[in-house]
Write a structure and sequence with these properties.
Chain lengths: ~625, ~100
């Protein structure tokens, strides 16, 4: 079965190619179903190939498809171990549900088939990333998902905001990619290969802490770009300009977790550096906290979820930074379930409200969209960390790891706990504003429940959000054992095995979550004037949160404006003045000279004859004079 | 005193012919006349060649004259054709009017 592993990538890739050429011919909605089938087929192959791992097989499988750059240990080879298998299952599983949903969501769009070309291409790229057997191929996938992200954010490119958001995502990611590339060069310099087996198995003997720190921090820069962490998170909120299924698949469930995946994959390198882990964890915790506070004050239903995604990714970074790689990957998985659910729910709301996204104009939708409301409620509870839903188990494991490590990580644990409270608050705020209370939407809009095609994925994801956490509870460490072979030789951090400490920590975080949820419920489940007054009572800080601490403005002032000035002076001063000036100057000089010489050619043959005769006389005179 | 015709006489005659040709070339504006002036200058040169050759007892002068004659014949063919064509088109052979390509 594992010889057929290449089918995992080939299915969606073939789907993309086929739809590119024949998509218009087979039309809507068949193109969408075909794309969904491609991803679902990929899921089935992954599942079949992952079966040995469920049975406890520890051997990683390597399948070399063809040589690419053998001299640097980079061929097209697939690395199939439990970590890759889990990622592939999440990508294809959640991916096929989102594809199915998108058939309903994108209904009637003039570029319906084009959308599914990009979506399939994205899935193929993401699978290339997670199945890569060396850093070079991983980088190929890394760039391809960035490209697909760009194409899909600016899918509605006639909107200037969507086009700008696509560019922003691409350029900000470029900054991270530079770090990533330099990291690859250092790795190659140290190991003379980029193959995972060649690098990760020998990391301990080859790398000294200094080099390991350099590699780790540069990888972190790349991961921070892709996974939207401080200081490169600014592109993700703007990425909400894309269609909602894109936000769910790329900017919540899969692509943005690539950074977490890379750090988990490179655990052997991060482990050697004494400071890389704490730095990663600190970046994660700070991002989690900052993004959560910004999410508090957002009014756009999708922007709340975008900042929430940044915040949850921060948790994952906190986990992998604290060497709790299993906890990080676990949260990656559960987050994929409930955040995809929340985004698809938000998409369903937007769909039902004829493209309104402002939560201040919602309210009372529970009666009109019962399925969406029920599934969104599950998603909200899951992300708020209410047991026994998925988010509770994974978030608690992360906090447990941080607490167990103690010291600086203990401080980060406090931040994580406070963030849990804020998370519960803003998610409950969102739910109440959208589904409870009085209707506030303008006249002429008639909200309706979304079609079956959209609600079925919602229900499936809701089910996963309920049960997804049970794969790794302190009582039964299923995922831990499953992933163990992937972290062979890496010292993993675990939460305390003391059940008393677990209960204490769980009580604390659940308490924080419930407190946040209850506070938000009390604050927002009342007439609009009252909660508006509540928000205004925060004064200036609310405004700061609302515009994300002005980070975009600051980046604009520090980077964008000087950059634009430089470009303008290069274009309008240097190019127009100096370069064009030189060229025009040469032309002008020649024209000037020609203007003086031109009268000589007056068209009178006799004057030419006279000149000729004068010339002859002059030459002869000169010759005679010389001869004399 | 007998009149001895020395090469100097021929040279003098050739010089006079050449000057007539050159002055005609510079002063007349009829293309056909200018053409004749050119022929006059060419033949003045021919005369010089022959005289010098005879004086030096060499055939080289006569050899050069053959070349000049051949070139002149070819030139006449092309030149007359052009002049006739221009005349047919413009009903005039004045070179001063042919200044369409002045700078």
């Amino acid at each position: 079965m594992q010889d057929l592993l290449w089918l995992v990538i080939a299915f969606p890739l073939a789907g993309a190619v086929f739809l590119h050429f024949f998509g218009r011919r087979i039309g809507e909605p068949r193109a969408g179903f075909l794309a969904t089938l491609a991803v679902a087929g990929s899921f089935l192959v992954s599942l079949a190939a992952a079966l040995p791992f469920f049975g406890g097989a520890a051997e990683a499988n390597r399948l070399t498809l063809w040589d690419w750059m053998p001299s640097i240990g980079a061929s097209f080879e697939l690395h199939w171990d439990p970590l890759a298998a889990l990622m592939a299952l999440v990508v294809t599983g959640v991916g096929s549900l989102i594809h199915l949903y998108a058939i309903g969501y994108m209904h009637g769009d003039p570029r319906f088939t084009r959308f599914f070309v990009y979506m399939n291409l994205f899935v193929a790229s993401m699978l290339t990333l997670v199945l890569a057997g060396n850093f070079a191929m991983l980088f190929v996938g890394w760039e391809l998902v960035g490209l697909c992200s760009y194409l899909l954010i600016s899918f509605w490119f006639t909107l200037p905001s969507a086009a700008a958001a696509g560019k922003k995502a691409f350029i900000v990611n470029r900054i991270g990619d530079v770090g990533f590339m330099v990291a690859l060069m250092i790795i190659f310099g140290a190991f003379h290969t980029l193959s995972f087996t060649g690098v990760l198995d020998r990391a301990a003997e080859v790398l000294d802490p200094g080099v390991a720190t350099a590699i780790a921090l540069l990888l972190l820069l790349g991961a921070a770009g892709k996974s939207a962490q401080i200081p490169l998170y600014v592109w993700l909120p703007d990425a909400m300009e894309g269609p909602t299924p894109v936000s769910a698949l790329i900017h919540a469930a899969t692509m943005v977790t690539a950074g977490v995946y890379v750090i988990a994959r490179s655990a052997a390198i991060f482990e050697i550096s004494p400071i890389a882990g704490p730095v990663v964890a600190t970046v994660g915790a700070l991002t989690a906290f900052v993004a959560a506070t910004i999410a508090l004050a957002q009014t756009d239903i999708k922007r709340v979820l975008a900042y929430s995604t940044i915040s949850q990714l921060g948790y994952m970074f906190l986990a992998v930074g604290a060497a709790g790689h299993v906890a990080g990957v676990f949260h990656l998985m559960t987050h994929a379930f409930f955040k995809a659910l929340l985004f698809l729910g938000a998409g369903s709301v937007i769909h039902g409200l004829q493209n309104h996204q402002d939560m201040r104009l919602m309210g009372g939708l529970r009666k009109h969209m019962p399925v969406t409301a029920a599934t969104m409620a599950i998603g909200t509870l899951a992300i708020a960390g209410v047991p026994p839903l998925a988010g509770f188990w994974s978030k608690d494991e992360i906090l447990g790891v941080a607490f167990e490590r103690g010291g600086w990580f203990g401080f980060l644990w406090v931040i994580g706990l406070v963030t849990a409270l804020i998370t519960a608050f803003y998610m409950t705020r969102q739910f109440v504003l959208v589904f409870l209370g009085e209707p506030r939407w303008p006249d002429g809009i008639h909200p309706h429940e979304s079609p079956r095609l959209m609600t079925i994925p919602l229900v499936a994801l809701a089910a996963l959000s309920v049960v997804g956490g049970f794969v790794n509870t302190p009582f039964r460490l299923g995922l831990e054992h499953f992933l163990e072979p992937s972290f062979h030789g890496v010292e993993l951090a675990h939460p305390s095995e003391n059940i008393g400490i677990f209960i204490l920590l769980a009580a604390l975080s659940v308490g924080a979550g419930l407190a946040g949820a209850a506070a938000a419920f009390l604050a927002y489940n009342r007439p609009a004037q009252l909660w508006e007054k509540f928000e205004n009572s925060f004064g200036k800080i609310w405004g700061w949160w609302q515009k994300g601490y002005g980070v975009d403005d600051a980046y604009g002032a520090v980077v964008v404006v000087p950059g634009r000035k430089l470009a303008e002076s290069a274009a309008f001063r240097f190019d127009l003045g100096v370069v064009d000036g030189l060229v025009n100057g040469v032309g002008k000089a020649v024209r000037g000279l020609a203007a003086r010489l031109r009268p000589i050619q007056n068209g009178l043959v006799r004057s030419y004859g006279l000149l000729f005769a004068a010339g002859v006389v002059a030459v002869v005179t000169w010759m005679l004079a010389r001869g004399a | 005193m007998s009149l001895v015709v020395t090469p100097g006489w021929y040279m003098t005659l050739a010089a006079i012919l050449f000057v007539i040709g050159a002055v005609g070339m510079l002063t007349r504006r009829n293309a056909l006349v200018m053409f004749m002036c050119i022929e006059l200058m060419l033949n003045a040169v021919n005369l010089t060649f022959i005289a010098a050759g005879s004086a030096l007892g060499s055939l080289d002068g006569q050899l050069a004259v053959f070349f000049v004659l051949v070139v002149a014949a070819a030139e006449v063919v092309v030149g007359l054709a052009i002049i006739v064509a221009i005349f047919r088109r413009r009903q005039s052979a004045s070179v001063d009017e042919l200044a369409d390509m002045k700078g």
